[in-house]
Design goal:
Strand order of the largest sheet: 1-3
Number of helices: 3
Order of helices and strands: EEHEEHH
Distance between the termini: 30 Å
Shape: elongated
Helix content: 40-55%
Structural class: alpha/beta
C-alpha cells in the first residue's frame, strides 16, 4: 500500500508579458523552486504553479509598436520568459 504524502502548494505571481523578463521575475521563480525542491525532499507531494498575464491594453499597444498581433507579441515574450526559467509551459507541475 502506497503511503499518502501530504500536499504542498506553491505559486508565484504571474509575469506580465508587456516586456522582457527581469531579475524580479527570475528571483521569485528561483526562490519558489528552491522551496518546492526542499518540500519534495521532505516527502511532500508538491504542486508548483507559475504563469504569465497575457492580456491588457499595454500589450495591445506594445504589439502595435512592434508591428505584430497581440497574440504574436505575447507568444514571443512568454517563450522568452519560459526559456529563461526553463519551464515547460504545457507541464501541469513544472520543474526547473
Amino acid at each position: 500500500m502506497e503511503k499518502i504524502r501530504p500536499k504542498y502548494y506553491i505559486t508565484t505571481a504571474i509575469a506580465y508579458t508587456s516586456g522582457k523578463p527581469h531579475i524580479g521575475n527570475t528571483y521569485e521563480v528561483v526562490l519558489a523552486d528552491s522551496i518546492a525542491r526542499f518540500k519534495r525532499q521532505q516527502g511532500y507531494d508538491v504542486f508548483f504553479q507559475t504563469g504569465t498575464d497575457e492580456h491588457g491594453q499595454k500589450i495591445e499597444l506594445k504589439a502595435e509598436e512592434a508591428g505584430i498581433t497581440p497574440k504574436e507579441f505575447v507568444d514571443n515574450v512568454s517563450t522568452e520568459i519560459f526559456t529563461v526559467h526553463r519551464v515547460n509551459p504545457s507541464s501541469p507541475s513544472p520543474s526547473l
